[in-house]
């Protein structure tokens, strides 16, 4: 019995132990049907109940109105970087989409969209993605087909805490892959919200797309059938064989999220956890450095450096990772594009686990400062 590690990685993320036990219990026979979910037909009543329950629960968690479709799709969040322009670029004759690029993931999305329409970069290319320029400086298109942003940049640790209010009233599309279900959102402010599963609601293989129904049906002719929201909506996300096991795990995670007390409780936990880490950083007298403008600090992915006299010290960072590993804490190395360290605090990470890491940060500082 290998002890479980505390996985602070950016995803695929750690799942609540209770969910894993539950899946283990049903591994050989789901709901007394004598098969694992992986072995069930996606057309079977048992699987239909799973996908219907998952949709019901996520609608309840986020108060999603009937005017929105909930689609369980494949191709990851990356697939949506193509599917979104393909489905929405024709909304306006301008065939121009506004992209707010605040980090690695929105940059990738904008580059992909360039294949399908005109992309207007709302702000100049940022040198380091430590900040978001004031909205008064944004260059918006009058008749943009849509406005795209990423609510939380997983690699750079930049989170946009408020939904932008746009003077051109463009339809807003948001990548919530890394902060989905960590805070309350007013779905009605968006044309599309999408998030991949492997961070806050399960495992990889699934991307959830919440899309306003009246915007569906405008896909470019060349849109692959699986990426056409109209086709997926009329087939209940099962135009082809869906990722049945990933949907099953999402269903378990939505149910778990409800039992935690819903989004309100998860948002509270997210705040407590990120405050623990930011306190360790802010009280470290610049031994730990967070370079993000505090107004845009992510509650979910926290990149930081360990520094001596303000200069990042890779040897100390390596030592920190070794010490963390000795205490069973893993996946704390920063992304290669940023370097340093990064803590990811998805919903499957508990407050107690975060306290252990904050404690290590303080002890490590006392020894090495
Ligand atoms: N957007 C964000 C914000 C992400 O963090 C990621 C994955 N880390 C992606 C998109 C891409 O997701 P996927 O690997 O599911 O395509």
Automatic annotation (TrEMBL):
<keyword id="KW-0032">Aminotransferase</keyword>
<comment type="pathway">
    <text>Amino-acid biosynthesis; L-serine biosynthesis; L-serine from 3-phospho-D-glycerate: step 2/3.</text>
</comment>
<keyword id="KW-0718">Serine biosynthesis</keyword>
<dbReference type="GO" id="GO:0006564">
    <property type="term" value="P:L-serine biosynthetic process"/>
</dbReference>
<keyword id="KW-0663">Pyridoxal phosphate</keyword>
<keyword id="KW-0028">Amino-acid biosynthesis</keyword>
<feature type="domain" description="Aminotransferase class V">
    <location>
        <begin position="7"/>
        <end position="357"/>
    </location>
</feature>
<comment type="similarity">
    <text>Belongs to the class-V pyridoxal-phosphate-dependent aminotransferase family. SerC subfamily.</text>
</comment>
<dbReference type="Pfam" id="PF00266">
    <property type="entry name" value="Aminotran_5"/>
</dbReference>
<dbReference type="InterPro" id="IPR022278">
    <property type="entry name" value="Pser_aminoTfrase"/>
</dbReference>
<protein>
    <recommendedName>
        <fullName>phosphoserine transaminase</fullName>
        <ecNumber>2.6.1.52</ecNumber>
    </recommendedName>
</protein>
<dbReference type="InterPro" id="IPR015421">
    <property type="entry name" value="PyrdxlP-dep_Trfase_major"/>
</dbReference>
<dbReference type="InterPro" id="IPR015424">
    <property type="entry name" value="PyrdxlP-dep_Trfase"/>
</dbReference>
<dbReference type="InterPro" id="IPR015422">
    <property type="entry name" value="PyrdxlP-dep_Trfase_small"/>
</dbReference>
<keyword id="KW-0808">Transferase</keyword>
<dbReference type="InterPro" id="IPR000192">
    <property type="entry name" value="Aminotrans_V_dom"/>
</dbReference>
<dbReference type="GO" id="GO:0005737">
    <property type="term" value="C:cytoplasm"/>
</dbReference>
<dbReference type="GO" id="GO:0004648">
    <property type="term" value="F:O-phospho-L-serine:2-oxoglutarate aminotransferase activity"/>
</dbReference>
<dbReference type="GO" id="GO:0030170">
    <property type="term" value="F:pyridoxal phosphate binding"/>
</dbReference>
């Amino acid at each position: 019995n290998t002890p479980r590690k505390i996985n602070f990685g950016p995803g695929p993320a750690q799942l609540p132990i209770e969910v894993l036990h539950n899946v283990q219990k049903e591994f050989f026979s789901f709901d007394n049907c004598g098969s694992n979910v992986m072995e069930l037909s996606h057309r079977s009543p048992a699987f239909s109940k799973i996908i219907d329950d998952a949709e019901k629960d996520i609608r309840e968690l986020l108060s999603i109105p009937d005017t929105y479709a909930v689609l369980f799709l494949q191709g990851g969040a990356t697939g949506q970087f193509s599917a979104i322009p393909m489905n929405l670029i024709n909304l306006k004759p301008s065939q121009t989409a506004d992209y707010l690029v605040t980090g690695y993931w929105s940059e990738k999305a904008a580059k992909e969209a360039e294949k399908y329409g005109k992309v207007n970069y709302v702000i100049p290319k940022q040198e380091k993605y430590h900040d978001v320029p004031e909205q008064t400086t944004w260059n918006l298109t009058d008749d943009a087909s849509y406005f795209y942003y990423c609510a939380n940049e997983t690699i750079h640790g930049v989170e946009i805490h408020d939904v932008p209010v746009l003077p051109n009233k463009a339809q807003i599309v948001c990548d919530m892959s890394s902060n989905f279900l960590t805070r309350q959102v007013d779905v009605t402010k968006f044309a599309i919200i999408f998030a991949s599963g492997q961070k806050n609601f399960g495992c990889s293989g699934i991307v959830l797309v919440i899309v306003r129904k009246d915007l569906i049906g405008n896909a470019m002719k060349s849109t692959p059938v699986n990426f056409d929201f109209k086709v997926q909506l009329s087939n209940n996300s099962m135009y082809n064989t869906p990722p049945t096991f990933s949907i099953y795990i999402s269903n378990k995670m939505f149910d778990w999220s409800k039992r935690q007390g819903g989004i309100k409780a998860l948002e509270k936990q997210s705040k407590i956890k990120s405050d623990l880490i930011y306190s360790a950083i802010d009280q470290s007298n610049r031994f730990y450095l967070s370079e993000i403008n505090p107004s845009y600090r992510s509650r979910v992915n926290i990149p930081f450096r360990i520094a001596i006299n303000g200069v990042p010290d890779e040897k100390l960072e390596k030592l920190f990772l070794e010490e963390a590993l000795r205490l069973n804490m893993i996946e704390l190395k920063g992304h290669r594009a940023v370097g340093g360290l990064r803590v990811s605090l998805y919903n499957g990470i508990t407050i107690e686990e975060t306290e252990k890491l904050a404690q290590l940060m303080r002890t490590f500082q006392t020894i090495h400062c």
